[in-house]
Write a structure and sequence with these properties.
Largest sheet: 6 strands, mixed
Strand order of the largest sheet: 2-1-3-4-6-5
Number of helices: 9
Distance between the termini: 41 Å
Helix content: 40-55%
Structural class: alpha/beta
Order of helices and strands: HHEEEHEHHHHEHHE
């Protein structure tokens, strides 16, 4: 999106992307979003004492109910989550919430509080606007080169700058709203979570999630991503 020549092209690209995604999402919900999904969720609950939900699951994590909005267990995090109150131990997502709007994120945090058990946790991995800003404006930060290395894929101006990276992070990839720790702390408190803190990969409090991140995510992911852990009291 940072390469569009004018507003009309920008709008057309957004409309094309929106319609393409919405039509696919409607199709998957029509086929799988009712009895098929409910049967899969009920079966998972019957087979597991610890209930762990992976949202936006492009790859599966062991011991989790793996949901993908364009998949056989479609869950739209902007809608009411299809789980009973106080029935889930862990919710996990990576690079999902930045694709929804601010008020939709607020609703998702509220819904996650509803379905989590006492001491349950919502682990959210998402690009941090503060982390990206610090990386691209601090010349000694090794993450700068990691992030700048992929700019050639998105523009051919022959220059790599912090300006390009910030706009890329905010406007490309279907991003809608990027957060930082201050905002997530406020949002968690607003929705009655007891704690919200950022952890490094080594301190992720769920072994299955930690193994997945270690084995699956690359340097770019780590350079721009904060891992938020929200704990329900």
């Amino acid at each position: 999106m940072i390469n569009t020549r004018n507003e009309i092209i920008f709008l057309l690209l957004n409309i094309k992307a929106f319609l393409s995604f919405k039509l696919k999402a409607i199709l998957y919900f029509f086929i799988y979003g009712h009895f098929v999904r409910k049967r899969a969720i009920n079966y998972y609950y019957s087979q597991n004492n610890t209930i762990k939900i992976h949202l936006g699951a492009n790859k599966k994590i062991s011991n989790f109910l793996n949901s993908q909005i364009l998949g056989k267990i479609p869950i739209d995090i902007t809608k009411k989550l299809p789980f009973e109150k106080n029935s889930v131990d862990v919710i996990f997502s990576t690079h999902v919430v930045e694709h929804i709007h601010r008020r939709e994120l607020d609703f998702f945090i509220s819904e996650s509080f509803r379905v989590l058990k006492k001491n349950g946790m919502n682990v959210i991995c998402t690009p941090s606007i503060k982390k990206i800003f610090e990386a691209v404006y601090l010349n000694k930060n090794e993450n700068k080169n990691v992030l700048f290395a992929r700019q050639d894929k998105w523009h051919n101006d022959g220059v790599k700058t912090a300006c390009h990276q910030i706009n890329l992070s905010m406007r490309n990839f279907g991003h809608r709203f990027l957060v930082d720790q201050e905002y997530m702390d406020w949002l968690a408190k607003k929705n009655k979570f007891e704690k919200c803190y950022v952890v490094p990969i080594s301190k992720i409090p769920d072994k299955d999630i930690k193994d997945y991140v270690v084995n699956d995510k690359n340097d770019v992911w780590e350079a721009e991503t904060d891992i938020y852990v929200l704990i329900k009291n």
